[in-house]
């Protein structure tokens, strides 16, 4: 039986945090055996926000090294950089011409990002979901493992693919969003009402994968909770719920056994326990990352091989789309 194929991407816009890891990357790693995997560092998406060109190139290699350190195994998965394959941008144009303004205008991420960057609301930021749809549709995938914040973009991808197939003829496979049951929306430690994000400025907002053990401990200790005195999974207590969900994923324990473990104990005890398990889980990632970053030639080789492997799929889909719309 042939394996189902998945594609996912991540932007090289800063060190990855626990939200990226639990919502996406950890799931990519854990299901590598089950699927045929294509993972991509989406650097062309990153330039929708102003970037320092030299730093962007460096951050792109750093993120690739981080994904390998997290456990992406190139024997099972192809890893490459979006800008290595021109068909991403080329297909995005064809899709752009087939997405109604109204559909694109509804994207909440555009609204959030333009509110955060009022001085640089560019056309690329608006068209961002068309490029994301192209990333996915080029590879004829069954699934797209992402966090919950990408759900709306996935719906737009499915819509444009179905419309295209109907209007021009069969071209794209219709992909499903693969969103984890736990970890799909990790919240900020300082403000559990807002999603953990790379761009938030709060010092205790996010745990970054390269944070030192001391920093991780301090951030968890300062995490916002509430004034109750029971430790239970309760979605109406977002700070506590967020912490317990993080603990659940890293320990693989059941919710019942976690609640039992903390009967009669206070938040201080819980926060230390979570910090310890996160520190130990991230330690090997941090160590492997440092080793990999000493050999950037190796990273470059892996990315070149990844691009070489998947390029024929992208070229074949793009050529078909081009022909169907009458571009010669
Ligand atoms: P990006 O780079 O913002 O995030 C990468 C992945 O991390 C997930 N994520 C989270 N999950 C849980 N809790 C959080 N707080 C959290 N923050 C981020 C995201 O859902 C994502 O899965 N548009 C995408 C990149 C992209 C892409 C694609 C993804 C471009 N093309 C094609 C899939 C397929 C993005 O900005 O992800």
Automatic annotation (TrEMBL):
It catalyses: tRNA(Trp) + L-tryptophan + ATP = L-tryptophyl-tRNA(Trp) + AMP + diphosphate + H(+). GO terms for biological process: tryptophanyl-tRNA aminoacylation. GO terms for molecular function: ATP binding; tryptophan-tRNA ligase activity. L-tryptophan binds at residue 135. The keyword Protein biosynthesis applies. GO terms for cellular component: cytosol. Pfam families: tRNA-synt_1b. It comes from the Bacteria. Gene3D superfamilies: HUPs (3.40.50.620), Tyrosyl-Transfer RNA Synthetase (1.10.240.10). A motif ('HIGH' region) lies at residues 12-20. Its EC number is 6.1.1.2. Catalyzes the attachment of tryptophan to tRNA(Trp). Homodimer. This is Tryptophan--tRNA ligase. It comes from Helicobacter equorum.
């Amino acid at each position: 039986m042939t394996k189902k194929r998945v594609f996912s991407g991540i932007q090289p816009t800063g060190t990855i945090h626990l939200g990226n890891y639990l919502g996406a990357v950890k799931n990519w790693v854990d299901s590598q055996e089950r699927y045929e995997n294509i993972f991509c560092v989406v650097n062309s998406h990153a330039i929708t926000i102003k970037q320092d060109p030299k730093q962007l190139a460096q951050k792109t290699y750093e993120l690739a090294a981080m994904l390998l350190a997290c456990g992406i195994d190139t024997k099972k998965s192809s890893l490459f950089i979006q800008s290595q394959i021109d068909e991403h941008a080329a297909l995005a144009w064809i899709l752009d011409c087939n997405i109604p303004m109204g559909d694109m205008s509804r994207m909440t991420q555009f609204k959030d990002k333009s509110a955060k960057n009022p001085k640089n609301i560019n056309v690329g930021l608006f068209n961002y979901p068309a490029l994301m749809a192209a990333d996915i549709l080029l590879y004829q995938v069954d699934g797209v493992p992402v966090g919950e914040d990408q759900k709306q973009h996935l719906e737009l991808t499915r819509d444009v693919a179905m419309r295209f197939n109907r209007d021009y003829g069969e071209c794209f496979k219709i992909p499903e969003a693969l969103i984890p049951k736990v970890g799909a929306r990790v919240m900020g430690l300082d403000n559990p009402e807002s999603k953990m994000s790379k761009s938030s400025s709060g010092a205790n907002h996010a745990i970054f994968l390269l944070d030192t053990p001391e920093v991780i401990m301090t951030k968890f200790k300062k995490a916002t909770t509430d004034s109750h005195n029971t430790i239970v999974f309760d979605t109406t207590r977002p700070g506590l719920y967020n912490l317990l969900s993080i603990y659940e994923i890293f320990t693989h324990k059941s919710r019942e056994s976690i609640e039992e473990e903390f009967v009669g104990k206070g938040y201080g005890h819980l926060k230390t326990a979570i910090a310890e398990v996160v520190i130990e889980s991230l330690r090997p990632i941090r160590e492997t990352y440092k080793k990999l970053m000493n050999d950037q030639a190796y990273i470059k080789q892996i990315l070149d091989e990844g691009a070489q492997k998947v390029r024929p799929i992208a070229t074949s889909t793009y050529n078909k789309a081009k022909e169907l719309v009458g571009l010669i």
